[in-house]
């Protein structure tokens, strides 16, 4: 099972999601991340946060959704509609859901305030991915509408 975390720049939220998912997921599950307009670099605070949490970022880079090595089974957009961002629309024949997150990379303030924004985003991502992995995936795989409803419900969770 391949899960794509998709955002516009693929430098922060989608990278955090990819790292957390790959760290927590069982064997046979894989997360990828990509952007519709990748920045070409990972946000240094996102990389540092994952490393502090003991999550490898080896091989991670900011990439386009045109450069994916596999076709995803599930696409999770993580951009923030509330912030007026335009979420990319993945048009493949996949299960899609939206887990909006404010971009901590755009927070302006003291170092402590910015770090707090990254930690809050990380906590929400962890909560959502743990909820996803706790689903009865074998049962839901047979009912795409129910699976999508559960994924959409998870997208509303906020730590």
Explain this structure to me?
The chain has 159 residues and is α/β, with parallel strands linked by helices. The protein has helices at residues 13-24, 44-52, 111-133, 137-140, 144-154; strands at 2-7, 30-35, 74-77, 95-98. The protein is globular.
- List how many beta strands DSSP finds: 4
What structural class do the secondary elements suggest?
A: alpha/beta
Name the helix and strand elements from N-terminus to C-terminus, one letter apiece. EHEHEEHHH
Beta-strand content:
5-15%
* Fraction of residues in H or I helices: 25-40%
- Main beta sheet: strand number and arrangement? 4 strands, parallel
Shape: globular
Q: Strand arrangement, largest sheet?
A: 2-1-3-4
- Measured between the Cα atoms of the first and last residue, the distance is 26 Å
| Overall mean pLDDT | 91
Number of helical elements: 5
Q: Can I get a quick summary?
A:
The protein has helices at residues 13-24, 44-52, 111-133, 137-140, 144-154; strands spanning 2-7, 30-35, 74-77, 95-98. The protein is an alpha/beta fold and 159 residues long.
């Amino acid at each position: 099972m391949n899960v794509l975390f998709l955002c516009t720049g693929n430098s922060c939220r989608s990278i955090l999601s990819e790292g957390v998912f790959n760290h927590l997921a069982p064997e046979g599950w894989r997360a990828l991340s990509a952007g519709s307009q990748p920045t070409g670099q990972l946000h240094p605070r996102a990389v540092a946060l994952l490393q502090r949490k003991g999550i490898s970022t080896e091989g991670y880079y900011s990439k386009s959704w045109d450069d994916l090595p596999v076709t995803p089974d599930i696409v999770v957009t993580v951009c923030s509609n509330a912030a007026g961002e335009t979420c990319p629309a993945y048009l493949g024949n996949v299960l899609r859901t939206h887990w909006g997150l404010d971009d901590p990379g755009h927070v302006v303030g003291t170092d402590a305030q910015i770090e707090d924004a990254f930690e809050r985003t990380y906590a929400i991502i962890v909560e959502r991915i743990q909820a996803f992995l706790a689903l009865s995936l074998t049962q839901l795989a047979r009912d795409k509408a129910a699976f999508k409803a559960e994924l959409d419900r998870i997208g509303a969770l906020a730590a």
